Amino acid sequence: MRTGLQILLLIWVLGYLLVSCGPLLGGHLLIGGLTFVAGIVLFVPWLVGVVVLAVLIWLTGPPRRR
Q1: CA atoms of 43 and 20, how far apart (whole Å)
Q2: Could you give the dihedral angle defined by the CA atoms of residues 56, 43, 19 and 3, in that order, rounded to the nearest 10 degrees?
Q3: Rounded to an integer, what distance in angstroms lies between the CA atom of residue 65 and that of residue 25?
Q4: Residue 55 has pLDDT above 90, yes or no
């Protein structure tokens, strides 16, 4: 479960960066500008998703030894 959540977090972070900045870095100024603005608007929901996934990963961590 933990590994699946870690992979999901990686996809979540990299997917956001790819969608919001990819076209701009690829030279498409009109589409890149629109997706960059959309990335700014969607930053807060993305950040909430990162925090939720990080907490779930922390909660499903290996049991602590005594």
Answers
A1: 10
A2: -10
A3: 47
A4: yes
